[in-house]
Amino acid sequence: MLPVLVVHGGAGHIPKERVEMSCAGVRAATRAGYAVLQGGWSMDAVVEAVTHLENIPSFNAGCGSVLNVKGEVEMDAIVMDGRTLASGAVSAVRNIANPIQLARLVMEKTSHLCLTAEGASQFARAMGVPEVPGESLVTDYARMRWEKNLAPDANPVECQMGKMGTVGAVAVDADGNIACATSTGGMLNKMEGRVGDTACIGCGGYADNRVGAVSPTGHGEAIMKVTLARLILFHMEQGLSSHEGSDLGLATMKERVGGLGGVVTVDPQGRWAARFTSAQMAWAAAQGDTLHYGLYPGEDITQSIGDPN
Predict the structure, then answer these.
(1) Are residues 235 and 208 in contact, defined by beta-carbon separation less than 8 angstroms?
(2) What is the pLDDT of residues 190-245, one digit of tens each?
(3) What domain range is 131 assigned to?
(4) What is the per-residue DSSP string for 240-275?
(5) pLDDT score recorded for residue 14
(6) Would you state the pLDDT for residue 1?
(7) Which of 18, 20, 161, 228 has its CA 20 to 30 A from that of 112?
(8) Does residue 82 fall inside a structural domain?
(9) Mind listing the pLDDT tens digit for each residue in 111-136?
(10) What are the beta bridge partners of residue 261?
(11) Rounded CA gap, 61 and 164, in Å?
């Protein structure tokens, strides 16, 4: 079996001036995670890839997170281990540079699946996770979007355009162990305390060694209504491929609740998919000596995994 890692940087509409940053970011994150995956564990690889994306200001996670209605950063993240179905998540966390690492600590150090807001912050302090100033997570771009969306005449459709989406990764290692990780700053100008799909098991991610793993991106409330990650794996349990299951799950979400989005998916044999119904989704995948990546529907560009560009 060849190990495989698939990463996404968010579904939606990406302005032309931010396209190259997005594509370069998912390629870099995939290379970083794949270096860990080769000879390592899938959980380590997905956390490495998502941590890399959280540290890139052009994504809606970590230091690039969008702002809530008060102009503050609140973030959600989840990890899941396909071997045991163990999972950890955090929601509405502040002042943490890498929420995905805190989610992993919830999985490994508590008997709970999700900690939220101040409870998550107290746990982070107890685990020795350093706090960072809230302003250090706020980019000029995020503040510009926040201010523009506060305008009384703001168009609700345009308000969501230009947002970099939720980031995530799925992987299968050489031993057949599967994992997923997803992280987000949430929805532009959301209400304080809003929890989206990312922190909810079966919605913002799911991993099971017997079936596969999914990490979604898109409109969180729509993803939650159809429990998108678990829905796709249900279709795969019925015999559909990762591509077919992903497409059917996304089609159901669009038909039933009008939601657009995307997913990265793997099955236990290392077959993978990066599928979306939105205009764009930055994604990349590494398997063998080849790096695949794309941004538009049907696009699959390949290059050597060792190519630094």
Answers:
(1) no
(2) 999 999 999 999 999 999 999 999 999 999 999 999 999 999 999 999 999 999 99
(3) 4-304
(4) --HHHHHHHHHHHHHHHH---EEEEEE-TTS-EEEE
(5) 82
(6) 63
(7) 228
(8) yes
(9) 999 999 999 999 999 999 999 999 99
(10) 218
(11) 9
What CA–CA distance (Å, rounded) separates 240 from 232?
9
* Paired tokens of 24: 């370069």
Beta-carbon contacts of residue 106 (< 8 Å; ≥ 6 apart): 88, 89, 90, 112, 113, 114, 115, 120, 123
Is 213 domain-assigned?
yes
Let me know if residue 309 belongs to a domain. no
d(CA 234, CA 217): 18
**Per the structure, how many domains does the chain have?**
1
CATH number of the domain enclosing 79: 3.60.20.30
Take residue 154 and report the two structure tokens written for it: 């703001």
| Residue 245 CB neighbours (<10 A) | 27
Please name every residue paired with 276 in a beta bridge, in sequence order, or none if there are none: 262
Tell me which residues are annotated as active site. Answer: 166
Give CA–CA dist 249/263, Å, rounded.
10
pLDDT at 107: 98
Three-state secondary structure string covering 113-163: CEEEHHHHHHHHHHCCCCCCCHHHHCCHHHHHHHHHHHCCCCCHHHHHCCC
**Cα 229 from Cα 197, distance rounded (Å):** 10
The reply to whether 271 falls in a domain is: yes
What are 167's strand-pairing partners? 183
Q: Give φ, ψ of 202 to 5 degrees.
A: 90, -15
Q: Is residue 89 within 8 Å of 113, Cβ to Cβ?
A: yes
Distances in whole angstroms, Cα of residue 187 to Cα of each of 17, 73, 285: 21, 10, 26
For the chain, where are the E strands, in sequence order?
4-12, 75-81, 86-93, 114-116, 167-172, 178-184, 206-208, 212-218, 261-266, 272-276, 280-287, 290-294, 301-304
Q: What's the mean pLDDT when you consider all of the chain? A: 94
